[in-house]
Amino acid sequence: QVQLVESGGGLVQAGGSLRLSCAASGSIFSIRAMGWYRQAPTKQRELVAYITSGGSTNYADSVKGRFTISRDNAKNTVYLQMNSLKYEDTAVYYCNADLISGYTTALYWGQGTQVTVSS
Questions:
Q1: Measured distance CA(90)–CA(12) in Å, rounded
Q2: Which end of the chain is more exposed for a tag (fewer CB within 10 A), N or C?
């Protein structure tokens, strides 16, 4: 059983910062990539950023220069540092992990954490 647990969401004023964390636990052999997605009301879930096991990163254009993704492989944890937050960053943020558990490779999701940016 694999579980992803996010934390760090909350309410912040525009221009402020938040740091999200997502820890993966359970029967994990290895994690290939971890990422953050978000879903705003009435919108589809969209990729925010991801990071591979080797440290390569990719960002949505809307967050480049403001958000930074990082990971601690020893702790199976991924972070999302969000600076210069905007009202349009308001969404539920989900982390995911592309990992190997037992003999299975699968994509796991966390339960989501709410980020609300007030204008």
A1: 10
A2: N
